[in-house]
Amino acid sequence: MRSSGDLPDAPVAAIDAISVAPMRPLPDVALDLIPRPGAPVPREAALTLLRRQLGRIQSRVQEAFEAHALSGLTAARMLGELTDGLIFAIHAYTLAQVGQAQRGAAQREIGGDEAEASPFGAPEPPFVLAATGGYGRGVLGPYSDIDLLFLSDAPLGPRGRRAVEFMLYLLWDLGLKVGHATRTIHECLEDARADATIQTALLDSRFLAGDAAVFDRFELAFAEARQDWGVGQFLSAKRAERTARHHRYGDSPYLVEPHIKEGRGGLRDVQTMYWLARYAFGVKRMPELVGPGSPGGGLLTAREARAFKRAWDFLWTVRFHLHYVTGRAEERLTFDLQPVVGARMGYTRHGKQDGVERFMKHLFLTVRDVVRLSRLLEPAIERATLGLPAVNRAPDPGLASEGVAVADGKLLIMPDHDASADPAVMLRLLRAARDRAIELHPLAYRALIRNAPAAQRLRGDPAASTLFLDLLTGRDSARWVRVLNEVGFLSRYIPDWARIVGLMQFDTYHVFTVEEHTIEAVAVLNQLEAGLLDEAAPVASELVGQVHSRRALYVSVLLHDIAKGRGGDHSEIGAGLALEICPKLGLSPEETETVSWLVLNHLLVSQTAFKRDIDDPKTILDIAEVVQSPERLRLLLVLTVADMRAVGPKVWNGWKATLLRELYWRVAEVLAGGLSVPERDVRVARAKQAAAAMLQEQPKEAVEHFLGLGYPGYWLSFDPESHARHAGMIREAEAEGMPLAIATRVLEARAVTEVTVYCSDHPGLFSHIAGALAVGGATIVDARIHTMTNGMALDTFWVQDAQGGALDAPHRLARLSVLIEQALSGRLNLVREIGKVRREPARLRAVQVPGRVVIDNFASNTHTVIELNGRDRPGLLHDVTAAISAQGVQIASAHITTYGVRAVDVFYVKDVFGLKIENERKLATLRAALLAALTLPGGEEAAGG
C-alpha cells in the first residue's frame, strides 16, 4: 500500500509486538471461589477475590504494554484472554451459588429427609454464555464494554433467570461495563432478521461457557439464516451505518482531532471490512482472503492483508494509550493528548519535524490506508457474492478506445486493459466520468489504488499533463483531485505532494491536514466560479471570472502550501518548488513565473488586511509596489479567499470579507493610476467637505465646531456617514453635559457590532474599555482611537461574539454599555471579573504559543507599528494595552486577529509628543513590558523580535 518513502520511521513497538518473556501465570481464582464442590465462598468474599484478580489482570496488561512488550492488538487479545478466565470463574461461581440457593429453598419447602431425597427442581433448558461485540472477537480495550449473550434453546426457567441476574450483578459490582442480552436461538434469528446491528453482534459471538451443543446449534442456524437473508441487505445496512457515522464524527479522515474508533479510517471501518468478509465467506482473518484458492478467488494480495494487520495494530496501540492516559474509554485524540500519546509511542523530533507532528502524520497515513483498503475490498466482496452483471464495453466508441468500460451503469477501466502499462488511462477514466456525469464504479477505485504506483511514469509526459490540468481546472475539480489523492495517484505524480500528505500543523487554527486543506481550497475556487459564494465573497466571485491566467490560478492553489513541514518560510521554499513542478505539469514559462509569484505572496493580502492600517497611505502604496499589475492583484485576492475559507468553518466572516474588499479596491485604484492616495491635506479637506454636506441641515456654527474637533487622522479613518453619526453623538453629549456617551450599532453585512465611546481622554482608556468588553463576552476585531482637539476621546471598537458573529441581542448591547461605564468610573474590578470569564478548554492548552513582539518603524510614515503574537485569553487586550499606556505611549489604532488560540494584535502608536518612537532604550523597555503582559500564568516563554 505504501512506498518506503510514504511512512515516517516509527518505533518498532508501535507496530509489531516484541516477544514477551514468559510471565508467571495468574492464580486460578475459580479455585478460591469454590474451594470444594458444593461449597462456594460467601458473595462478599467472592467480590474481594474477584476484584483482586481483576486488578491483577489490568495491571499485568498495562505493565507489559507500557514497557513496549506488547503492541496494541496483542495487548487487546491478551486482555480478552485474561478476561475470559475471569468470566469462566464468575460463571462457575454463579452456577454453584444459584444451585445451592435453589437446593436450600427446596429443602425448606419439602422439609427434612424427604426433601433430601426429592429430585432438585424441574428440568430446565440448558443455556450457554457467549461473548459478542469486541469481546466476541477476542479483543478488549482497557475500558471497553464486555458484551455477553445468554443463549438457550427455549426460554430460561427460574434457575436460569436467577443465574443471569446473579452473574450480571456480580459483574456490575466489580465496576465492569456490561452489555447483555438473554435470547433463545429462535429469538436471536427473529431479532436479527430485520436488524443489521444484531446480525453484526451475532457475527462476533464466541462460546465461553455452558452447554457447547446449544452454541453449535445456534451457529448452524445462524449460518443458514445468513444464506437466506443474503449479503446484499447486510452490505446496504453497513454502508448506511458507516455513512451516518462518518457524518457524525467527520466525513474527512484528515481532521486534526480525529476520533480513533468511529471516525473515517478508524477502527470501526476496519471492523466493517472484517464483518463483511465474515458474513459473506465465514472467514475470521484477512489473510484467509489471499490466494486464488481463497473465498472469492483471492480478493486481497498478501501485501494488502499485511496492510490491514498493520493498520489494525497501530490503531489499537493508539487506543490503548488513549485509555491509559485518560483513565477512561476516550476515543478522540485531542490536541492535549496528541503530544502525550506520541511521546509514549516513542516519536521524537526528527529534523525539522516535531515528535507530535511525526506521530500524527503516521496516524493520518494509517487512516488513509484504511480508506484505500476499504475501497479495495468492499466492491470485491460485493461482486464475488452478489454476482453483479458482467463488465460491458462502453457504448461510446471513444470511451472504449480509451480503455474505459461500463458496469452497472458506472465507469471503470476495462478488465483486459493493463493500467500499469498505460497509467494515463486512470486520468482518462476520471475525465470521462466528469464529462459524461457518470459515477465511478467501486471496482474503478480498486483499479486506481492498485495501479497508482505507475503514475510516477507519467511525470513530464505532455499528454498526461494535458489530462491532469484538464481535471484540475475543469468542472468540480476538487472532487477529482480528492480521488487522485485518496487512491495515491497524486503522491506518485507530484513527489513533493507526498510530503504534505497527512501533515498537520499543531495548532487550533487549521481544521485539516495540509493536503486536505489544499483540496478544500480548490473546492472553494470551484464554488467561486459556480457563483455559489456571491453573498459571502462578492468581490472574489466577480473577479474570478475576469482572471486571464486561470490555469496558473488553479495550480497556485494546488501548490500554495506544498513546502509546509520543511522548516523556514514555506512561501519562499514553495515558490522555488513551483519553478520546478510547473514545467513538468505543462505550464508555459509565463504561467510558471506567475504561479511561483503567487505562492511566494499568497499571504500578502491577508496579512496586510488584518495586521495593517489600510487607511494609512503607505500600506496601500507598499502592497501596490509588490503587486504591480491588476491581473496579479485579482489572482492574489481570489487565492486569498480560497485559502482562508478552506482553513475551517469559523475562520471566514463578514468583517474579514470587508477588510479584504476595501484593501482590494484601494490598491486597484492605485494600480489604475487613480488618486486614491493624494496628499494628506487634500484628502482631509475632501473628508471635511463630505462631512459638511451630510450635516447641511444643522446650524452652521455647530458644523464648524465639529469640523474643528478632529485631527487629520480622524478625518481619514471614517466615511462621511460615520462622521455625521459622530457629530450627532458629540452634539447631544455636549448639550446634556454628559461626561460619557456610548453608542452601539449592529453591522450585519460585516458581521460585527460597532461600539463608539465618547469621553474625557486619559491614559489607560483603551485598556479599561477593552477589559469591559472582554467581561461582556465581546471579542475586539478592530479599533480606532482618536483624541479630539477639545481633549475628549472618540474611540470606536468593532466587536464580535465567540462564534465570530455580531452581538445583536439588545440585552447584551445594554450590558456592554453598563460594563464600559462601570469600568471607566472605577466601579468594576476588571482583573477580578476577567478572571471569571470562561477559560479555553483543557484540550487546547497543549498547543504552545510563545509570546513575540515585533516593533516596526518602516511600515508607516507616521506611526510606530507594534505586532504582538501570543496565546489568546480573556482580557489579553486589557493587559497589553495597559502595558502600552504605562509606558507613556499613545495608541492610534488597533487591528486584532485570532488564529485558533494564537492572537495577533497590531497597534499603531506614537509617543506623548505625537511622533514615532525611535529611541532604542525606550523601545527595549516597551518590548520587555509587552512580553511580560503576553506571558501566561505558569510561564510560556516569550521572544522579542
Automatic annotation (TrEMBL):
Residues 754-835, 865-945 form the ACT domain. Coiled coil: none annotated. InterPro entries: ACT-like_dom_sf, ACT_dom, HD_domain, NT_sf, PII_UdlTrfase/GS_AdlTrfase, Polymerase_NTP_transf_dom, UTase/UR. Residues 514-636 form the HD domain. Residues 1-397 are annotated as: Uridylyltransferase. It catalyses: [protein-PII]-L-tyrosine + UTP = [protein-PII]-uridylyl-L-tyrosine + diphosphate; [protein-PII]-uridylyl-L-tyrosine + H2O = [protein-PII]-L-tyrosine + UMP + H(+). Keywords: Hydrolase, Magnesium, Multifunctional enzyme, Nucleotidyltransferase, Transferase. PROSITE patterns: ACT, HD. It holds the Pfam family HD. GO terms for molecular function: [protein-PII] uridylyltransferase activity; phosphoric diester hydrolase activity. Its EC number is 2.7.7.59, 3.1.4.-. Its cofactor is Mg(2+). Uridylyltransferase (UTase) activity is inhibited by glutamine, while glutamine activates uridylyl-removing (UR) activity. One of its GO terms (biological process) is regulation of nitrogen utilization. Modifies, by uridylylation and deuridylylation, the PII regulatory proteins (GlnB and homologs), in response to the nitrogen status of the cell that GlnD senses through the glutamine level. Under low glutamine levels, catalyzes the conversion of the PII proteins and UTP to PII-UMP and PPi, while under higher glutamine levels, GlnD hydrolyzes PII-UMP to PII and UMP (deuridylylation). Thus, controls uridylylation state and activity of the PII proteins, and plays an important role in the regulation of nitrogen metabolism. Belongs to the GlnD family. Has four distinct domains: an N-terminal nucleotidyltransferase (NT) domain responsible for UTase activity, a central HD domain that encodes UR activity, and two C-terminal ACT domains that seem to have a role in glutamine sensing. NCBIfam families: PRK05092.1, UTase_glnD. HAMAP family: PII_uridylyl_transf. This is Bifunctional uridylyltransferase/uridylyl-removing enzyme. It comes from Teichococcus coralli.
